[in-house]
Amino acid sequence: xNLTFRRLGVTELLPRYIFAESLFVRRRVLEVGAxxxxxxxxxxxxxxxxxxxxxxxxxxxxxxxxAQGRAGSERLRFRPAVFDDLPPGGFDLxxxxxxxxxxxxxxxxxxxxEQVSGTGVLxxxxxxxxxxxxxxxxxxxxxxxPPTYGQVLDAFAAHFPHVETAxxxxxxxxxxxxxxSEGLQVDGSLAxxxxxxxxxxxxxxxxxxxxxxxxxxxxPAPLAFTGGRLxxxxxxxxxxxxxxxxLKSALGEAREELAxxxxxxxxxxxxxxxxxxxxxxxxxxxxxxxxxxxxxxCRTSWPPASAxxxxxxxxxxxxxPRPSGDWRRAPRNRRPRGSRSGSSRPACSRPRNRCGxxxxxxxxxxxxxxxxxxx
Length: 375
What we know:
Blueprint: H1 10-19, H2 21-24, E1 28-32, H3 35-38, H4 41-48, E2 53-58, H5 61-71, E3 76-80, E4 91-96, H6 100-104, H7 106-114, E5 116-127, H8 149-157, E6 162-168, E7 198-204, H9 221-224, H10 226-274, E8 297-301, E9 310-315, E10 327-329, E11 355-357, E12 363-368
Parallel strand pairs: 1-2, 1-4, 2-3, 4-5
Antiparallel strand pairs: 5-7, 6-7, 8-9, 8-10, 9-12, 11-12
């Protein structure tokens, strides 16, 4: 992307630097948060305009390393935005690209204020969303709302007794002049009343001297190439609006059809109920969905020594829990071996003539065999 009309790019920051040029000539300058947006060009501009020493800080380490390798020198250094190892009061001017993160974090603002010398000045800008900025021609503003004008003043009042506020507004027009004309007359009657794009805060511990208003002329060439982008954006916006309108209309029709289908279904169910018929889909399910299993549960009891083994079997209905106690599932398809030799615990089968109902649909059978008891 062209850095000329990028958010917090050269077109946004360099006019502030020109406005505050009398504050940084032959002085030590700390620039904060502008390396990633300008690629280090704003710090180079400060050096070219007479700053004695410029230290540019940014959270983007990749941009810092690239700028240091390209433009680093004895008078210009690029480093991460960490101020712990910097001596307090070591800079005559601190330039902050965006004050919003520091207004939201008072601890960071306190660290930044410590870098300003006793006679130094802190200059920073904060976006006014009610005003139009030139960077909006290339990219929209972020989603987060910036701090208000009152919040900015309250945050700076805790560290600086003197706080002044200037406005930064875009200008669009023509310059009419002879080649050897002197002076400049600015007529804003055609522009109308508008909001400022940025508020520029100048804070210090001593009273500031007056700074003259400044009109900064920008190159118009990049604006000529934004026309196509504006047309594309406008076309896409119209297409999305038309598509949203069609989808909204189709959604409304689908909702109406669904409501009509529900009404017809309720009317059908009501008619069937009045005739004593069960509506389709509401038939009661059988209690037991599978055939009963005829594998019995058997219990073995130990009779007195004179008697033999005794075992009773039961076929419980499907769905009942397993019987507790010493009930065991009997082997299937096995006949009782009775008193055969070597048989001490005969298996249980299903006697045909000894079965009866034991309640709740269960079939209960009993069988007993006489076997020699334990000696």
